[in-house]
Amino acid sequence: MLTRTKQISSDIMIINRILLPCSALLWLATCLCASPAQRPPTAQPDVLDEEEPATRPTTLPLQFNYKGREADAPWRKEAQARIDKFRKADLSIVVNDVAGKPVSGADVSVKMKQHAFTWGAATRVPLIVDNATLKLGPGLTMPDKAAINKYQEILPSLFNRSGLINDLRDDWVSVNQGEITRAIDWLRSHDMRVRGYALVWPDWGHSKWAAKFKDRDSLNKEIANRITAKVGALKGKVDEWDVVTEAKNNVTSPNSLFVMAGGADALTEWCKVARQADPNAKLFVTDDGVLDSNTTRTWQNKTGKPTYVWNADTVYGYLQQMVSKQAPFDGIGFEGHFKQLAFLTPPEELYSRLERFAALGKNLAITELEVAVPDPKDEKQAALQADYTRDLLTVFFSHPKIVEVSFWAIWEPEARKNSSALFRADGSAKPNGQATIDLLRKQWWTDLTGKTDNDGKFNTRAFLGKYELTVTSAAKTKTISADLSPEARAIVVKLE
User: Fold this and answer.
1) What ranges do the domains of the chain cover?
2) Could you tell me if 365 and 402 are in contact, meaning their C-beta atoms sit under 8 angstroms apart?
């Protein structure tokens, strides 16, 4: 009976994620541009029977546009103002001679080397470890060495964080720990911080090992041991972990691993275990279907009968419980899989959703960003993909509580049907990749020159991050490294 219930629940979840009831199509069109305060109530009058799901159409209407795409959309000016306020600081350079007197007219070069903000992209072990036994994934062909070399150039040149999205999700005792450690070392040697994925995936399908545990105590003991083993082994190498991912699908299912383990109480304890294993690692609780859908409803079991509930409400509910229990986690992660053109959340609504979760007092992160289109080779779809990627990044970068934006799979060969990739197999940038480069390395990048004034000062406004500063005067040159933070003081350069 348990197997049958699980199969039905899985089927229903798959149906709901792909299809919508005919009667909901008009309702969806009304909701697409609605603000959170205007959205329909979460309770629905019809409770669908688990045995007889409602008839649904086979496709959703494609919408090759979204509200707020216009060049003069009001949200753009507001976002730019926030970026200038939260992502920049005053950079002041004072140039003195050997006697401590100001040097006027000195040439100053300001070259940004790395963002303070975290821009990330997940990777896979075989792409950065030579002769790895770990594979890319089912149905994927390993690219040749020249292509991999190109990928290895792209990854650290554009991003300052990465993580082993598949391999660090697997059972630690059964994976090739040596190869994983080598991959992490490669990332760190390229000045990239490391994210760890999914210490706990609280459902029976992703955590098949848990099926043999029949009671809460033994299950949680095993989970605690697994968290301790993985986090402890990689202490000091992994900078942040997703303690749990995608709990929303299991919150109200009476037979779920999540419920059996103890719900929000279990989440709180898992965070405590992870914190003890590595006190310096940042801990996140991550879910999906919050930003990347337009008030869509998720099939779940509520009050004993399956019905629809809002993704965002479900996720917010268990996070709120964790906060009230003072669970030791640092941030909330949103996966960000924008895979359906019907669900391209307008930028203004996206910001409102972020605001709702920011009120819980935690940092926010986008952990697996992708914007997919049916045919990225189609000019119209490629333009839509590029524009929406640009606007997503703009909204995210403008929000003061967001500390990280990481992509899911930036290179076509690293995932099946990877229409969301930023780069083609030959390493060339697709339109969405070029849009990303233009933002991260041009629009949001400080690289300029100038001269000191009569007081030997050079002042400008620059993006937060690491810099190389070069000052030249009277055949004397000095180059220093500097970090620009919101609290940065004037940087004094002495020409000797």
Assistant:
1) 87-106+452-494, 115-443
2) yes
The structure tokens listed for 493 are 């350069």
User: Three-state secondary structure along the chain?
Assistant: CHHHHHHHHHHHHHHHHHCCCCCHHHHHHHHCCCCHHHCCCCCCCCCCCCCCCCCCCCCCCCCCCCCCCCCCCHHHHHHHHHHHHHCEEEEEEEEECCCCCECCCCEEEEEEEEECCEEEECECHHHCCCCCCCCCCCCCCCCCHHHHHHHHHHHHHHCCEEEECCHHHCCCCCCCHHHHHHHHHHHHHCCCEEEECCCECCCCCCCHHHHHCCCHHHHHHHHHHHHHHHHHHCCCCCCEEEEEECCHHHCCCCCCHHHHHCCHHHHHHHHHHHHHHCCCCEEEEEECCCCCCCCCEEEEEECCEEEEEEHHHHHHHHHHHHHHCCCCCCEEEECCEECCHHHCCCHHHHHHHHHHHHCCCCEEEEEEEEECCCCCCCHHHHHHHHHHHHHHHHHHHHCCCEEEEEECCCEHHHCCCCCCCCECCCCCECHHHHHHHHHHHHHCCCEEEEECCCCCEEEEEEECEEEEEEEEECCEEEEEEEEECCCCCCEEEECC
CA–CA distance, 56 with 15 (Å, rounded to integer) = 8
Topology of domain 115-443 in CATH is TIM Barrel (3.20.20)
Q: What is the pLDDT of residues 348-373, one digit of tens each?
A: 999 999 999 999 999 999 999 999 99
| Strands 331-334 and 297-302, sheet pairing | unpaired
Q: Given a cut of 90, is residue 91 above it in pLDDT?
A: yes
pLDDT tens column, 410-457:
999 998 889 999 999 999 999 999 999 999 999 999 999 999 999 999
- Give the pLDDT score at 489: 92
Provide the whole-model pTM. 0.85
What are 133-171's pLDDT values in tens digits?
Answer: 988 888 899 999 999 999 999 999 999 999 998 888 877
Quickly name the fold that domain 87-106+452-494 has.
Immunoglobulin-like (2.60.40)
